[in-house]
Amino acid sequence: MKLEFLAPQTLQDAVTMAKARGDAARFIAGGTDLVIQARKSGTWPEAVINLQQIPDLGEIKGSGQNFSLGSLVTHRQIEREGRFAGALEALRESACVIGGHQVRNVATVGGNLCNASPAADMVPILLCLNAEVALAGSEGRRVVPLASFIEGPRKTKRAHDEVMTEIAFSAPAQKFASAFLKGGRRRAMEISIVAMAGVVSVSRDGKLTDVRLAMGAAGPKAIRLTEVEKFLEGKALSKDVLEETGRLAAAAASPIDDVRASASFRRHLAGVYARRVVELSWNRISEVGNDRSAA
Amino acid sequence: MTEVQLDLTVNGRRHRLSVPAHYSLLDVLRDELELTGTKTNCLEAECGVCTVVLDGKSVASCAVLAAQCQGREVTTVEGLAEGAALHPLQEAFVEFGAVQCGYCIPGMIMTAKAFLDENPRPTREAVREAIAGTLCRCTGYQKIVDAIMAASQRLSQQGERA
């Protein structure tokens, strides 16, 4: 084993180092995925390029509607972020179920996205918020929608010399609420067997509008449930509507059998969590203080 | 083997070390500094046994590369007592018998230390949530939570007197 540890002080240096070393080098942020995977497999990259000393990657910026998360923002920062209390609560709910505090204090949102586990808990809510990720590489800077950035299990559009720098999103313009729920065999320290995030708004006549639902861990990558979203548009919430929501969500799942759950149980849970997330976000609408139309 | 030159402060003492680049913080604490109070167990950041406090925050030392701790400050369970005087958390764990085999206790105490530093007067529920990443597989959590609650009271009383 001959691991080289590189500690660039600028983004440009990080990119140059990665380009020079090709696939043999990997970027490291919090390290909680990389270190554990490397030790378990006994295969370390030839070099790791530490991103932690690069300035400006660790901040949450924005207010009102537009926000950006630096790629090195930790789950700890997100779960404690006051600007996400209320309407954007699902961001905090997603961040606070990842590992224990010991992991969340270190693990980064950029790492969660670039590692591209189908069960990555930050992905569903960021899909609901139509997040876009910024990548900086030797060919320049580009912005990619998160929905297309993640291509499949552990597979993304990121080139080996590209650093994810930020994740940007806009909250809905009208009053909205959000929710995130995760199913696992325990309530802590668990890899999701289904994860569900939702963002809903309610029109002046009391109907659901601009509903966004995304599901993780129930297919090769997290996806928006567009069929369910279309179905819910303009509907008032009722028992029948919730039942159909569950049925459509279960139908959209393409889960696998694995050590954590069977495919059929995952499909069942997808339906249950879709219903609960829609109901929970609907109930939260009256509690959130983001009604700009009333201002 | 490529080595990194590491400048690390542990329990208030500054160390300058040369360690292999793949060493975790846990490897450095146990193998280089012989601070074996921090235990090794799952090596997957799942069990919390290797928890130490890094710049004021609890971390799983098995999952943190030592090289990423350049210039930073670490507190381990060895750094809590002042001479012969145990830290209130340690006292409370002894007093409440919050220990069976004891293997998780250094991690449990360091998890609680970082938590109480941020939340001096927590509820029991908050304590349970705080230790969710630190697993005990023999004595159960009741006495551990009792001990952390008692320590929080003593620490706040000390704080008020100071």
Question: Helices, strands, pairings?
Answer:
The complex is a heterodimer of chains A (295) and B (162).
Chain A: E1 4-6, H1 11-21, E2 25-28, H2 34-41, E3 47-50, E4 60-63, E5 66-70, H3 75-79, H4 89-95, H5 101-104, H6 109-115, H7 123-128, E6 132-137, E7 140-145, H8 146-149, E8 150-152, E9 155-156, E10 163-170, E11 176-183, E12 194-202, E13 208-216, E14 223-224, H9 226-232, H10 239-252, H11 263-284
Parallel strand pairs in A: 1-3, 2-3
Antiparallel strand pairs in A: 4-5, 5-10, 6-7, 6-10, 8-9, 11-12, 12-13, 13-14
Chain B: E1 3-10, E2 13-20, H1 25-32, E3 51-54, E4 57-60, E5 73-75, H2 88-95, H3 105-118, H4 124-130, H5 142-161
Parallel strand pairs in B: 1-5
Antiparallel strand pairs in B: 1-2, 3-4, 3-5
Helix pairs in contact in B: 2-5
**Low-pLDDT windows of residues of chain A:** none
Number of strands of chain B: 5
Task: Specify Rg of chain A, calculated over alpha carbons.
Answer: 19 Å
Largest sheet of chain A: 5 strands, antiparallel
Percent range for β-strand residues of chain A: 15-25%
Structure in words:
Chain A is 32% helix and 25% strand. In chain A, helix 9 packs antiparallel against helix 10 (239-252). With 295 residues, chain A is α+β, with helices and mostly antiparallel strands. The termini of chain A are far apart. Chain A has a 5-stranded antiparallel β-sheet. A 4-stranded antiparallel β-sheet of chain A has the order 11-12-13-14. The longest helix of chain A has 22 residues, at 263-284. Chain A has helices at 11-21, 34-41, 75-79, 89-95, 101-104, 109-115, 123-128, 146-149, 226-232, 239-252, 263-284; strands at residues 4-6, 25-28, 47-50, 60-63, 66-70, 132-137, 140-145, 150-152, 155-156, 163-170, 176-183, 194-202, 208-216, 223-224. By secondary structure, chain B is of the alpha+beta class. Chain B has 2 domains: 3-79, Roll (Ubiquitin-like (UB roll)); 88-161, [2Fe-2S]-binding domain (DNA polymerase, domain 1, Orthogonal Bundle), CATH 1.10.150. Chain B has 5 helices and 5 strands, in the order ββαβββαααα. The longest helix of chain B is centred in the C-terminal third of the chain and has 20 residues, at 142-161. Chains A and B meet through helix 2 and helix 5 of A and strand 4 and helix 3 of B.
